[in-house]
Amino acid sequence: MELNDLVAKNQHKPNADELWNYFAAVMAWVRAKFPHYRREMSAVQWGILYNRYKNDPRTPEELEQEVSKHMADDEVTKKSGIYEFIFDHNERHLNLRTFTATQIRTKYEQQGGLCACCHQQFPIERMQGDHIIPWSRGGKTTMDNLQVLCKDCNVRRGAP
């Protein structure tokens, strides 16, 4: 149950016991799973993570190892997103560093305006920077890991 639903359900009750018990359960789970406090934790929607992942079998040590690894990665620009990422592995939570317009233009010129995948010519407006080695596999946002793909190829390629 989402917090707003729980509040709405209990707003006319004489006490807030159910809401308080839920809050206490969420906080106990957070403290048990993530005993190492970081300031980025204040921006996390813990109720949502608790509802979805309260039965995750990983130990606090395993979770801490993952969190610590991503906290140290300068490619991750939204550190609070690490907590959701370690459960669902969706990179959008991390606001990963993207290639600059200058990097994309440089690579576009080096590739002669051709998509590195389908080898067709496109105007730069229809091209996107792509990590050759995906970030999820350790690839970095550097010129030697950049290729320029047409939008269709980039969408089809995804991040394996």
Summarize the structure in words:
It is a single chain. With 160 residues, the chain is mainly α. The protein has 2 domains: 3-94, no CATH class; 101-157, DNA Binding (I), subunit A. Helix content is 43%, strand content 6%. It has 7 helices and 2 strands. The chain has helices at 3-10, 17-33, 46-53, 60-71, 82-88, 101-110, 151-157; strands spanning 127-131, 146-150. The chain has a two-stranded antiparallel ribbon with strand order 1-2. It is elongated, with a radius of gyration of 21 Å. The mean pLDDT is 91.
Q: What is the topology?
A:
Layout: H1 3-10, H2 17-33, H3 46-53, H4 60-71, H5 82-88, H6 101-110, E1 127-131, E2 146-150, H7 151-157
Antiparallel strand pairs: 1-2
